[in-house]
Amino acid sequence: MDRESSYAPTTSSYESSSLSDAVSSSRRGNGDPSQASTATIRGDSMKRAVRTDNAPPPLPFFSQAIVCQGMVYCSGSIGTSPITNQIVEGGVGDRTAQALNNLGAVLQEAGSSLRNVVKVNIFLSDMTNFAAMNRVYDTFFEEPKPVRRHHLNPPSHDTK
Hints:
Largest sheet: 4 strands, mixed
């Protein structure tokens, strides 16, 4: 079986933190693309949309993930329950766990998993949430841990 790489952004909480841009390597189970749409881009390069009901639905203008040339690129998300489509109750840790569960579901649908993630970008609105996010994040990844980049992304306040 050919080895694929995966790229997956996600978000961990509504107002406190988010995870984005997780890159992973994957193996597509039996290579059956029946659960994804496929389109030709730039000649013979193929891209395939990934869609699962085990993660919150994407907004109409993007996909949960795209597989292209052996990479899986996942859209960002917040700690939303795929069942209720609402932000999960609790704090940053609860929302981080939900976001990572959502990411795992999308990666699984694409033929990958969290075990293969190689890069994650984390967005926090307040650095005081870093420790709570990090405690939960650490439980989702085994060695070797993915590389990470942290961004302070304070909530914007519309002045209009």
